[in-house]
Design a protein that fits this description.
This protein has 371 residues and is an alpha/beta fold. The protein has 12 helices and 17 strands. The strands form 5 sheets. An 8-stranded parallel beta sheet has the order 7-2-1-17-16-13-10-9. A 3-stranded mixed beta sheet has the order 4-3-8, covered by helices on one side.
Length: 371
Amino acid sequence: MAVVACGGGAADRPTLNGDKPLVIGHRGASGYLPDHTLESYGKAIELGADFIEPDLVITKDGVLVARHEPNIAATTDVKDRPEFASRKRKAVVDGFEEEGWFVSDFTLAELKTLRAIQPMGDRDQSHNGKYAIPTFDEVLALAQRESRRLGRTIGVYPETKHPTYHQRLNLPLEDRLLTTLAAHGYTRKDSPVVIQSFETANLKYLRGKTQVRLVQLIDGYDQNADGSIDQSLPWGQAYDLTVAGDKRTYVQMLTPAGLAEIKKYADGIGPWKPYLIPSRLTLGADGKPVDLNKDGQIDERDRTLMPPTKVLADAHQAGLFVHAYTFRSEAKRLVSDYQGDPKAEYKRFYDLGVDGVFADYPDHAKAARGD
């Protein structure tokens, strides 16, 4: 089973290869259903996603499962399960202590008794408690089964979550990931799979072990009022660099020299959207952000777009494709210029030349693409 890098499309598209941009179902169709469930991934496929995106963590008995974080307090009903009350504890993840229940403290059999919940309180909560936590093997099987049924290739876009954290638990993700992929026939550069990571060392390790495409994710702590990206820890720097005492931030990784270095071990980058098109808040005479829409709160609707940066053009110049994240359709998560229309945001990024988008609502991304 094989797929071209970004699907077919018009030669004049401003993407790296002139192909149409990919629609990547972010955690499935997470705008509609609890994320990282087979039902959410199935919904994304139904809505036209080209790829589905499972985040991977690992159980106590060494099985890769799809959860957004090792801590499952916010994404499962574990807090309502008295049989697991004693498992609640504190753990340090990427240098910061958090409290909850951690996947590595559960066997797969135990984890399968839990049910997923919608972590965003402003989204539909009616599916909470219905869906199980899938293994990575089950996600791959779903993608291949649906590819055969629909007659189109459904790609899978796994993220290795917190590689250094898992290595310290003596539960490294990488070889298990490659073994599972190989069992499903995903071993080649044109296989319908892309592996992503916010860290660098594990991608370099993977590059020496596989031909499948790799993506360096680019994070940031926050976007400042002036549109610049806050590089505070833990999200302003790849955590393996923090551990190594390497001072390079994600901003520095996006310079032409930094992108050339990424090209040595990865095929693309996955930047947070403001790295490509920043936005700014308007500050009043008191130095505080102005509530542009006068709704009593400051959010994306009070931001104004700024000109695009050089990041996308520089990445393409380096031969790297660019898959941007995360596109969400709620009005409060859209910059004022888009006037509450998520398709306007997609079109802006498509016109810029992004090669793919991570979308919580894949149908909106597909509609904006015009197919």
